[in-house]
Amino acid sequence: MIFGGNDLAKALGITVSADRIALQQSLSMMVLACRANGLTAIDGVFNQIDDAEGLEAECIQGRAFGFDGKTAIHPSQLAICNRCFSPSNEEVAHAEAIVAAFKQSANANAGVLQVNGQMVERLHFEQAEQLLARQQALAERSG
Fold first, then answer.
1. Burial class, 72, CB count within 10 angstroms (exposed 0-12 / middle 13-18 / buried 19+)
2. C-beta separation of 46 from 70 below 8 A
3. Which of 82, 112, 133, 135 has its CA 20 to 30 A from that of 126?
4. Positive or negative CA dihedral for 63, 69, 70, 72?
């Protein structure tokens, strides 16, 4: 599902600021609806084609809200969107450590472990596996 911020702003008669404060509840609700229904949540377009810094800020915000990606209206936006929504090397390394820890035979039935000084639960293991699967899919597409 793609968030139509421009359409929603028009329908509601609101002004959208750089922080998208007027849309934040709707952004959150859309991600919630997507997760509840097994859908991919894609953040809407960023209208200022020549504002790379603004695009990056909006991508970071969208990822923080839980969006899986962002639509682009110009090819110059693709690199920023891809970078912001791709797992970082640190995130991949952390996910690999979590998966490795839970896959050790001694931890086969563990519900909670300590990994790199953090308490991690089975839900973190599942998140780590999802992140690694997404990273693998991205690597296959670009390679």
1. middle
2. yes
3. 82
4. positive
